[in-house]
Structure formats: structure tokens, C-alpha cells
Design goal:
This protein has 409 residues and is α+β, with helices and mostly antiparallel strands. It has a five-stranded mixed beta sheet, covered by helices on one side. The longest helix has 81 residues.
Length: 409
């Protein structure tokens, strides 16, 4: 059975790829049927039709050959083939007292027109063909107008038009389903590309935060080392040690972030978790070592947060303190508070810098505050960043503790 099914499938695929060969075989089969039917006499005896009591003449054979041969190009010029086969059928019905079943060619042609054109064309052409052929058989045929041969022409042409229209409708339905499936596939691919682009933007923000933070620390410590190298070499060595530690941390975080972009077959990416509020003390220690006094107030009890919220909170504090170190002046101090309020967590960073030394990107939308705002907006939170009354700057972010995927803590 499997061999039979595979052979049938191969034969069907071959016929689909060679439609002209299929139409030539169909034309030959129709010719055989017409010639065979021309030997049958429906009124040969009182008991019913007989076979072999009549033979077609040469003109009928010629018309049958012409009608069958016209079916070979039926897919390319369906209307022309229908007109030709209908004309051949009319000639046979009018000229012969015992017409051969030449109408079979017109029936196949009408089916082709109905299956390859639209419904209005099928109705117009089908009704015209049915009317003309049936009227010719009734008016010029050797039998009474109500004979079964005339009704047969009407029935066969009507069924051909209906069957062709049904095949065309089914084909259109299948094409519509296939087109919707392809569109859905394209939509999924576009959604995947969009998500990849968004992820790359998040990675770019992470890279900016890491580089800005550690390079700022390296710059400050290098300046301290250069300033005290001659008079206090021990303090210079300590500053250089901080430079080395900040550089190592920057490299580690860059490696972990860029590891997200690795392709299959690349070396394995680091498995360390992304930074979060759990390592906030280590982050603040790096700023204190860089000469920025930072005080911390926490009332969140170090409760677990969704990964995206935890990383965003860490990066916001890191970027805000980096801005304080860069813009608030040498005598600035900073305060960081992390407060859990209901289903939100509030991150606040304050400094006492002078108003003129406020972060340069507060009004211009530089990359630092812009990155923080994008992170907060992506999580459904709010961010405010503005100078404080009397001096200094204030950054406050309110983040939901429920991730957008529905994860609650």
C-alpha cells in the first residue's frame, strides 16, 4: 500500500508540473468516449438503447477530432476553446440527423472556463452556452424537443458550470488560507526581529552604563594617583589599585553583557547573574573609594525582585551616582534610598552639588538620563530627574515590583 501511495503521489506531482501532457491525455480520453458514444443508438429498440446499430460518418468523426483536439490548450485560452467547441457542437446538431456526442468537448471547456475565471463570467457564459446548445438540439434535432438527449445537453452543461465554480471557490479558499499562514509566518519573523532590536538596545544601554561608571572611576583614581605620586606614594599605589579593580570590573561586566550576543559555536558566555540590588553595597563602595561620600537608606529588606526590575534599579543608581561624581563638584555628597511601597519600589538619589553643576543631560536628554528613562518606561514605571531647591540634583524612579510578564514578588 505504501509503494502504491508513493507511486500515485509521484504521478500526481508529475502531472501538476506537466499540465499540457495532462490536457493531451484528457483530450484523448474525451475523443475515445465520443467515438464510443457515437456507435450507441438511444432509440435502437423498444427496450432501450443499442450499441453498434449505427456508425458515425466521416464528417462526425472529423468534428469529434476537432472538438477533442481543441481541449489541449484549454488552460491558456479557455474562452476561445469554449467558443470553438460550442461552434463544432452546433454544426453537428444542425447538420447531422443522428448527431454524435460532440457536446462533450463543450462541457469540458465550460468547466475549464468556470474553474479559471470569476463567478459573473461563469454565469454569463454558462447560461449562454446552455441556452444555445439546448435550443439547437430542440429545434434542429431529429427527436422531439422534450427528448432526453436535449435535456441531457442542458443538464451536462449546467453541471459543468457548477462544478467548475465550486473548484474555483475551493481553490480560492485554499489560497487564502495559505496566504494567511504565510502572512502569519512573516509577522512572527518581524516580531522576532523587533524583539531582537529591542534587546540590542537594552544591551547597548547596559554597555553605556558599565563604561560610563567604570571609566569615570578610573579617571578619578588616575588623577588622584598623578597628584600624590611624588609626595604620598602609598596613597598613589592605593589609587592605582582601585584603577586596576575598576578596570577588571568593567572588563567582567562588558564580557557578561556582550556574551548575550554570542552565536552558536562561540566560546561559552559567563554564567554569573546580572547585577542587582543584592550587590548594591559593593557598588557604593567603589564610589566611596573614588572619593564620593555616599549614604544608603534601605527599607526593602533586600526582598527579591523580578530580574528586569532588579537590574534596572541597580543601573539607575549606578548612572545617577556616576553623574554626581562627574557633575556635582569635588565636595559633593550623595544619598541613596531604596524604599518598598506596596507593589512598587522607589529609588531615590540625592546630591548637594551647586545648581550650576547639575548633570548636563538633565535638560538636553543626554544618554545617561535617557537610558534611565527608557529602562523605567519599559517596565511601566516613572522617572523624575530635576535640580533640587537650594542646590543639588534629585533622581527618583518608581518601579513596579510586578514584571510585565505577570511575575510577582
Amino acid at each position: 500500500m505504501t509503494t502504491l501511495d508513493s507511486g500515485f503521489s509521484r504521478g500526481r506531482r508529475w502531472l501538476r508540473t506537466h499540465p499540457l501532457a495532462f490536457d493531451a491525455g484528457l483530450a484523448l480520453a474525451v475523443l475515445v468516449c465520443m467515438v464510443t458514444g457515437s456507435f450507441a443508438d438511444p432509440h435502437g429498440s423498444p427496450n432501450g438503447p443499442t450499441f453498434g446499430d449505427r456508425t458515425p460518418d466521416a464528417s462526425s468523426v472529423l468534428l469529434m477530432v476537432l472538438s477533442a483536439a481543441a481541449l489541449v490548450p484549454r488552460r491558456r485560452v479557455p474562452l476561445a476553446v469554449l467558443g470553438f467547441t460550442s461552434a463544432v457542437t452546433l454544426v453537428e446538431l444542425i447538420a447531422d440527423d443522428s448527431p454524435a456526442p460532440v457536446a462533450m468537448g463543450a462541457v469540458i471547456a465550460l468547466y475549464t472556463v468556470a474553474s479559471r475565471t470569476d463567478r459573473p463570467t461563469t454565469w454569463r457564459v454558462g447560461l449562454a452556452t446552455m441556452t444555445v446548445l439546448t435550443a439547437a438540439g430542440m429545434l434542429f434535432g431529429p427527436t422531439p424537443w422534450y427528448a432526453q438527449e436535449n435535456l441531457g445537453v442542458f443538464a451536462w452543461t449546467g453541471m459543468a458550470a457548477a462544478a467548475g465554480d465550486a473548484v474555483r471557490s475551493r481553490r480560492a479558499f485554499v489560497d487564502a488560507i495559505r496566504e494567511r499562514a504565510e502572512r502569519a509566518e512573516r509577522t512572527r519573523e518581524e516580531e522576532a526581529r523587533r524583539r531582537v532590536a529591542e534587546e540590542r538596545l537594552r544591551i547597548a544601554r547596559d554597555l553605556h552604563d558599565v563604561v560610563a561608571h567604570h571609566i569615570a572611576l578610573v579617571n578619578v583614581q588616575a588623577g588622584v594617583a598623578a597628584h600624590v605620586m611624588d609626595k604620598r606614594p602609598d596613597q598613589a599605589k592605593e589609587a592605582l589599585a582601585h584603577v586596576r579593580e575598576a578596570s577588571r570590573s568593567a572588563l567582567n561586566e562588558l564580557r557578561a553583557t556582550v556574551g548575550l550576543l554570542r552565536q552558536s559555536g562561540d566560546p561559552e558566555a559567563p554564567t554569573e547573574p546580572a547585577p542587582g540590588l543584592g550587590v548594591l553595597d559593593e557598588l557604593l563602595a567603589t564610589f566611596r573609594n573614588a572619593g564620593l561620600p555616599v549614604e544608603l537608606a534601605r527599607t526593602d529588606d533586600s526582598a527579591a525582585l523580578p530580574a528586569a526590575v532588579d537590574l534596572a534599579a541597580y543601573r539607575i543608581i549606578q548612572e545617577a551616582l556616576t553623574n554626581v561624581r562627574k557633575h556635582a563638584g569635588p565636595d559633593a555628597k550623595a544619598e541613596v534610598s531604596v524604599v518598598r511601597v506596596g507593589r512598587t519600589i522607589e529609588i531615590t538619589v540625592l546630591d548637594n552639588g551647586t545648581p550650576k553643576a547639575a548633570p548636563a543631560d538633565a535638560d538636553t536628554g543626554g544618554h545617561g538620563l535617557l537610558g534611565m528613562r527608557e529602562r523605567v518606561t519599559a517596565l511601566g514605571g516613572t522617572l523624575t530627574a530635576a535640580p533640587r531647591y537650594g542646590g543639588g540634583f534629585r533622581v527618583q524612579a518608581i518601579l513596579p515590583t510586578t514584571a510585565r510578564t505577570g511575575e510577582d514578588t
